[in-house]
Every structure is written in C-alpha cells, then in structure tokens.
Amino acid sequence: MAAGYDVGAKFPEIENVKEVMEGKTVTIQHKAGEVMLVDFWATWCPPCQAPMAHDQKMLEEHGAKWDGKVRILGLSIDNDSDTVKSHVESKSWTSPEHYHVKVAGCPAQEMFGIRGVPHVLLVDTEGTIVFKGHPAKRPDLVADFNTLLSGGKIEGVEAP
C-alpha cells in the first residue's frame, strides 16, 4: 500500500488495530467535529517518552474542556502489546487511547509512510490531516487543538 495520506488528505480508517488496555481488535476512525492527535511511538524509543508524557499532561489539564472534542491516540510500534500496556501503566499514561499497530494485518505504518518514531498526525474537525511529522515541530499543541476546534487553521504547516 502506498503512503498516500499526507497533509491535505482525509484521515482514513485504520483497521486491525489492537486496543492495548482491553486487548480488542478495533478500527480507528475520525469522528466529525473532533480533533485528533495520532502519536506513533515505542516504549524503547527515548525521544518518544517526553511527547507521550506531554499527551498525558495535556489531557489531565484540558480533558474536561475537550471531552468529546479532542482525542489523543498513542499508536505503538513495539513488538507486542503487553510491553506497551506495562509501560503505559508504569508511567500512568492512561488518559490517551493506546493502540498496538505492529500486528499482522494492520497497515498503519505503511499508510502514512512512518519510517521512524516519534511521528505524529494532527487531524482537524473535518477529518483532514493538517500536520504530519516530528512532534517537536508543533511546540504548542494545546493552542493547535483550540485553534482547530474553533474552525481556524494552524500556521507553520507546508503541504508535501
């Protein structure tokens, strides 16, 4: 499958994803009116740890205001979901939704051309990918979420 989902593309459904905490196989979908941050990461990746901690902190601080409007999804590329679950629990990173995507039949990495982690996708309320890249290139995600929720456009993004 070609990596055809760049900035400006509609976020596709991602099938055959394992939900880490419950162990169910699910399909990830964007819901109209919500902003999504999709964070590809791994437990063994030192640069991934700060963004995941920041995801947790953002939801702790703004979750009540964003309830039903902002979703933060951690998509782990670890070899197994038990390692992810143990790591998430030990760090108390339980507010983001956690999924394991390195499973047979899950095309997530290929769909988005993910070659390394950390790597994030930011999706607006209409389901359009508005940013794709390293999370350090979006230093104020709270402002990005609030801008997108109000129907605005984020700055500093170039289409590929």
How are the elements arranged and paired?
Layout: E1 14-19, E2 25-28, E3 35-41, H1 46-66, E4 70-76, H2 81-91, E5 97-100, H3 108-112, E6 119-123, E7 129-133, H4 141-149
Parallel strand pairs: 3-4, 4-5
Antiparallel strand pairs: 1-2, 1-5, 3-6, 6-7
Query: What is the count of structural domains?
Result: 1
Q: Give the total of beta strands.
A: 7
**CATH structural class:** Alpha Beta
The CATH homologous superfamily is termed Glutaredoxin
Q: Please trace the helix and strand order, writing H or E for each element.
A: EEEHEHEHEEH
CATH topology: Glutaredoxin
What characterizes the major β-sheet?
7 strands, mixed
> In DSSP terms, counting alpha (H) and pi (I) runs of 4 or more, how many helices?
4
Task: Please tell me how large the radius of gyration is.
Answer: 14 Å
Helix/strand/pairing category: alpha/beta
Write up what this structure looks like:
The chain has one domain (14-149): Glutaredoxin, CATH 3.40.30.10. 29% of the residues lie in helices and 24% in strands. It has four helices and seven strands; from the N terminus they run E-E-E-H-E-H-E-H-E-E-H. The protein has helices at residues 46-66, 81-91, 108-112, 141-149, and strands at residues 14-19, 25-28, 35-41, 70-76, 97-100, 119-123, 129-133. The chain has a seven-stranded mixed sheet. The chain is globular, with a radius of gyration of 14 Å. The two termini are 18 Å apart. The mean pLDDT is 91.
